[in-house]
Amino acid sequence: MTRISITTDVDAGTISRHIYGHFAEHLGRCIYDGIFVGEDSAIPNVRGIRTDIVEALKGIRIPNLRWPGGCFADDYHWMDGIGPRADRPQLVNHHWGRVVEDNSFGTHEFMDLCDQLETEPYICGNVGSGSPHEMQQWVQYLTAPEGPMADLRKANGRAEPWKVRMWGVGNESWACGGYMRPEYYADLYRQHVAYLRNLGENRLYKVACGPYGEDLHWTDVLMRETQPRKMMHALGMHFYCGSGRDKQLAVAGTEDDWYFLMNTANRMDSLLKQQIAVMDRWDPDDRVGMLVDEWGTWHEVETDTNPGFLYQQNTIRDAIAASLTLDIFNRHCRRVHGANIAQTVNVLQAMILTEGEKMLLTPTYHVFDMYATHQDATNLPCYVDAGTLGEGDTQTPSLSASASRSEDGSVHVTMTNLSATDAVTVPVALHGIEGTDCGARILTGDAMNSHNTFDAPETVSPVDFDGVELRGATATVAMPPRSIVAFTVR
Ligand code: AHR
After folding, report:
1. Could you give the domains of the chain?
2. For residue 436, what pLDDT is reported?
3. 69 lines ligand 1 (CB under 6 A)
4. pTM value?
């Protein structure tokens, strides 16, 4: 029997709002074109930053934004991006498409973006080709009330120090960030953080480069080597769930590919269990957080686009991979203190796609909208009793769910029917609450590849849903295939 059982009066940890974090790299049309168009653009903007993008991202209450990379971070020298724009050097973005990086979007522009979004900056410093001194000076430039770097900041027009808490020390140091061994990176991490100081009232939350998915050795070494002085607040793991069996366009794919992708996305659960087991050995009190600071689907680039720009469409399939993953993060909230989907605009599993002055919200954006109620809410034990679909490397749960309680006592439930073809009716037992009011929304698509286009931007968007019937302490939910339902019981 397919059913869900939720205990609404038991506290299973807090779902940090930072699990709903985002990532914007100097890659393709994410920053330039997507977010930043410059003051002289005909596209409405505030100090060069697109107004439509800011409004849309505020709509999903993005809690933090990671920048400037990604691989770009370990090639980035922050002093190139300050001072008068005309004086900033023009360089080549070697990682991404070998296009000219004119540095017109730098530190001040990024901090302005965060202010406009009312979000926390999460800056990733350069270990691969930088130095402890360079990183130390960047922290000083941003956060020091006084001193030479504060004077430079003031000369560039910003008197007050900014508040910057989340600080990453290198990106994928096992790959594009320097091809290091964990032992070597652990030493470099220790060296760098020795010079990253809390200045004035600013307090840093230091994030070490973590493993790719299954690499437990990296985690073990980092946890071991950073124990003595509690040098690390969090470890940033990366995991992408690819495409179908072969790399394919986001809008392509058979039913087999659908389940293959879901199976890969669902690996996040077992990977986190294994990674957390390693962390528990060194840190039984959950002091160090796991941030999955890059995750998402990675398809073939759209036809006739620069392969180095990683521009892909986004379908109901991506939305379902996202809701499945967010349920996993919610469940692991004891140790998963944050996550950043890759990436915000026009890159990989984006929230928003743009074409000139046009923009559209992707199905994945709508998932973040429907899940926003979980931000900083109390995680509730949620037992899903359902079978699996597919077999072998396509085996996947047929149903996924998570639940939370917000301060006013409302209970929020998010459910996903992973079946590509079949509807399901699910009784949801809500132990400890008898609600009278139940507002629900649904996101679904007519086909496995339903998506939004600039001509039809609302093909996949959430609508009010009357398929949740609340009787006493049970909600009965009639879910179409390929659907995500969010409802709140008060
Ligand atoms: O998100 C795209 C790239 O994927 C990032 O730059 C890198 O960190 C990862 O390999």
Report:
1. 15-376 (3.20.20.80), 382-489 (2.60.40.1180)
2. 79
3. yes
4. 0.97
